[in-house]
Design goal:
Layout: H1 3-11, E1 13-25, E2 30-35, E3 39-46, E4 49-53, E5 56-60, E6 65-68, E7 73-78, E8 82-93, H2 96-105, E9 114-118, H3 123-139, H4 142-166, E10 171-172, H5 175-186, H6 193-199, H7 204-215, H8 219-237, H9 242-248, H10 254-265, H11 269-283, E11 298-305, E12 308-316, H12 326-345, E13 374-377, E14 382-387, E15 390-395, E16 401-403, H13 407-412, E17 419-420, E18 437-438, H14 447-453, E19 457-460, H15 463-469, E20 475-477, H16 485-496, H17 499-522, E21 530-536, E22 539-543, H18 552-558, H19 565-571, E23 579-582, E24 594-599, H20 610-614, H21 616-619, E25 623-627, H22 636-652
């Protein structure tokens, strides 16, 4: 991010001064790994010190300015008595239109997160503003705090002038490095993705994407791996109890710690400790045949669920010479006898799962996929479902279902999950999920939270979430973006054996569509043109696809209504979500007889805009505002409710001539 972009940010910023203090450090004193709780300026008054900010070294003499982003790690090593002023602030883009423009242009960059250090050309000017800021801050009256904000803007202006004059090089704080450092130092504490995002002034989604791009892991997965690595070391090198080790690496529940350890290592903590110590003793025995140091042979451990087993790489098994005892021979004979008995009985066994969700077995007694995508294995109370990831063995009657994003279809089938990803407050089915656990954003659920819920079935909408959760329980991936609403519902219904219920829902929807069409036709509305827009004073997005959402499916796909010709030409050929961003000046050309505008909290008020107010549909009262949350989803439950809303509002609006 260039300095001129930062200046534009300040022009659109709302700020709050959080703290200002004067600190004196004695010669030889140190400050180590201090995490900045907010964006901050450090201005040296006297003395000298070596400052490190996120590993970048700065030699701070008298009158040196340093800026660090929230979450940055600060180290100070003093050479003599060292005095500095520390100013914390919070700033955000205040205007929705500019904030949206910023996010579209550079979504992975957080405003006000530049890191830089320089010696001001006019140091006393900056010091004057900081002294006045400190004085006003100490007074703490309402007028004084208002004065503080005014002085802060003046301070920023003066500093930006001096930065520009000296052409100071600035750089963005790296949130991935900050997150890695934080996890290494704080893995013992409660850490969530939302907390990390807040700590480093990033959105959860972008922090997760950046972290995964650079490390190959999600932040929470890296946290778990860090904890497991620390636990392995303590298990081998100390005599600490399992409870003590669990608490030391950040898990208050020993049972939960044991489960997650076994999930990642393949064996329980106690088994791992015994095995590693046995290996250490074996290495000291001179008669043991050694293994190759290049390629050690790894034995598969397993994660076990009821009716579901998943083999994974686990602990190693050293090659050893063993003395055969009579008891071992008896065990072997007994095993052979049981195996022969099992073979002669022809009893079906539950197939081993593949890739964490259950792959089909060669056993002829195993349930296989039918044309509908599922078939019940009554003996084992499981069902085998065909998916893009292969056949998945799921419980025939799952009781603890976790579903991400696809909640509406699940609810429509009469199933209440135990947990889902977060749902917008205005969603049509929000009330149906009362009391259901929320797992955060659908694209970055917390695996630990999912494990805690002990689900017997997980339904996910993406490759990423499938990979993240597939080892926890039978997991079905639904590529919803490649399906129609009906196809998606039928696919989900096949998981639960509710194909008939899905057929009924689809028939009912089709009946409602036909009735709605007839009602609108009788009212002389069905042949009128419809536009759907979203945006504000600086510009509008005009929906040009049936798959865009915001009511496009209900209006253009199900009711079959048309847009103005210039828009309809694109709707007829666009198969994916699409829309055009238009200026207010040309917008009237794209507005039909009726206009639906998607609105949300903070949306621009267009009442006083002359161009918007002059559009016939708006001027004559055929503007229908739709709630963003309510029209965001495209499941069969939401489509039903959206159709009711659309028809009701169209009938209530003045008729177009």
């Amino acid at each position: 991010m260039q300095l001129d972009e930062q200046m534009k940010c300040w022009n659109h910023a709302a700020v709050k001064v959080l703290d200002i203090r004067r600190i004196v450090m004695e010669a030889g004193a140190q400050l180590s790994s201090y995490t900045l709780p907010a964006n901050g300026f450090i201005y040296t008054i006297r003395g000298s010190a070596v400052l490190q900010l996120d590993g970048q070294t700065y030699k701070a003499e008298r009158f040196y300015m340093l800026h660090g982003a929230k979450g940055s790690s600060l180290d100070i090593q003093t050479n003599e008595d060292f005095e500095y002023i520390l100013l914390y602030y919070r700033a955000f883009l205040a205007f929705p239109s500019y904030r949206k423009k910023w996010l579209l242009a550079q979504p992975e960059v957080t405003p006000f997160s530049l890191q830089y250090g320089f010696a001001p050309s006019s140091p006393l000017g900056l010091l004057r503003y900081l002294d006045e800021l400190e004085g006003a801050w100490i007074q703490s009256g309402s007028l004084d705090l208002l004065h503080t904000k005014s002085l802060f803007y003046q301070f920023i202006h003066e500093m930006m002038v001096q930065l520009a004059e000296q052409e100071i090089k600035t750089e963005l704080a790296d949130p991935v490095k900050q997150t890695l450092r934080y996890i290494q130092n704080h893995y013992r504490e409660q850490v969530t993705l939302d907390f990390l995002a807040e700590q480093f002034n990033y959105s959860s989604r972008h922090l997760s994407m950046q972290f995964k791009r650079q490390t190959g892991h999600s932040p929470i997965d890296y946290l778990i791996q860090t904890r497991i690595a620390k636990a392995r070391n303590l298990l081998v090198r100390s005599d600490a109890t399992l409870s003590e080790i669990s608490a030391e690496v950040g898990y208050s529940d020993v049972y939960y710690f044991s489960r997650i350890f076994k999930k990642h290592v393949g064996i329980s903590p106690i088994q791992y400790q015994r095995k590693m110590r046995e290996e250490a003793r074996t290495e000291d025995r001179p008669l043991v045949i050694s293994e190759s140091s290049i390629g050690r042979r790894w034995k598969s451990g397993y994660i076990d669920y009821e009716n579901h087993y998943q083999y994974i790489d686990g602990g190693s098994t050293p090659m050893k010479r063993r003395k055969t005892s009579s008891s071992m021979i008896m065990v072997a004979l007994l095993s052979i006898t049981m195996l022969l008995a099992a073979c002669s009985s022809g009893t079906a066994t539950t197939p081993a799962a593949g890739e964490g969700t259950g792959a089909s077995s060669n056993n002829s007694s195993t349930a296989v996929s039918s044309d509908t995508g599922s078939q019940t294995n009554k003996d084992n109370e499981t069902r085998t479902v065909s998916t893009v990831k292969g056949d998945v063995v799921v419980p025939a009657n799952p009781k603890r279902v976790v579903v991400l994003y696809l909640q509406g279809d699940v609810v429509a089938l009469g199933i209440k999950p135990i947990a889902t990803s977060e749902v917008f407050n205005g969603a049509a089915y929000k009330s149906e999920l009362e009391g259901v656990n929320s797992l955060g954003t659908w694209f970055e659920p917390n695996p630990e939270a999912v494990i805690d819920l002990d689900p017997d079935l997980i339904i996910v909408p993406s490759e990423e979430t499938y990979t993240l959760l597939k080892d926890i329980a039978p997991t079905v991936y639904i590529p919803y973006e490649k399906m129609t609403t009906e196809e998606r519902l039928q696919s989900i219904a096949s998981i639960f054996g509710k194909e008939q219920e899905a057929e009924t829902l689809i028939n009912n929807l089709n009946s409602k569509v036909e009735e709605s069409k007839q009602t609108l036709a009788d009212a002389g509305i069905l042949d009128k043109t419809i536009s759907i827009v979203e945006g504000g004073l600086k510009g509008m997005v005009v929906v040009e696809s049936k798959q865009y959402g915001r009511g496009s499916q209900a209006l253009y796909e199900y009711l079959g209504m048309k847009a103005p010709e210039v828009v309809q030409k694109k709707i007829d050929v666009v198969s994916e979500a699409g829309g055009s961003n238009l200026s207010m000046e040309v917008l009237p050309e794209y507005i039909g007889d009726y206009v639906f505008r998607s609105v949300y909290e903070g949306a621009d008020n267009l009442t006083d805009d002359p161009i918007w107010s002059s559009i016939p549909a708006v001027k004559e009262g055929r503007l229908i505002e739709i709630d963003f949350d309510f029209f965001y989803y495209s499941d069969i439950y939401s489509i039903n409710k959206q159709l009711d809303f659309v028809v009701e509002k169209l009938l209530a609006a003045p008729r177009a001539q």
